[in-house]
Amino acid sequence: MSAIxxxxxxxxxxxYGSEATEWVETLPERLTACAAFFKLRELKPxxxxxxxxxxxxxxxxxxxxxKMLFEKASLKKEKEVLEAFVxxxxxxxxxxxxxxxxxxxxxxxxxxxxxEIGNDEKDGWKVIDPKGIIGDIHFETIQYLLNYVDRNGDPxxxxx
Length: 160
Known about the structure:
Elements: H1 8-16, H2 21-38, E1 41-45, E2 52-59, E3 62-69, H3 72-84, E4 93-97, E5 102-106, H4 114-117, E6 121-122, E7 125-126, H5 141-150, H6 155-158
Antiparallel strand pairs: 1-2, 2-3, 3-5, 4-5, 6-7
Helix pairs in contact: 3-5
């Protein structure tokens, strides 16, 4: 089973306080449950975890990513946003379990880093630099999409 990287538990408790104690302590059991539920194998966490537990693995011969968040409402919102932008170049949601707090995403391997392309329009589509949008380096891409949908924005129009 996938190990919990050193320092991740400490970071979670520092960020969320005692509210996250049970989540941190039961994470190994929930990882086992997610692996069984989603039929995952070869789970390996990413090295630099911050406020989400993220691991790569395999299910049905397909490379996937398991994402688990302490804040289940945020995970559900992220799922909804990704689904709203399906067929617009965002990763696909392959599975979701609200009780387990787990989201299965397709694993993508970048070809050309967006940092080489820049923040301009090319061939009729917008390049969204993961470091920031519209010059604000603190404005993360997923947060931009979350805010856009929260304000009743049209997912079909945002990336045109």
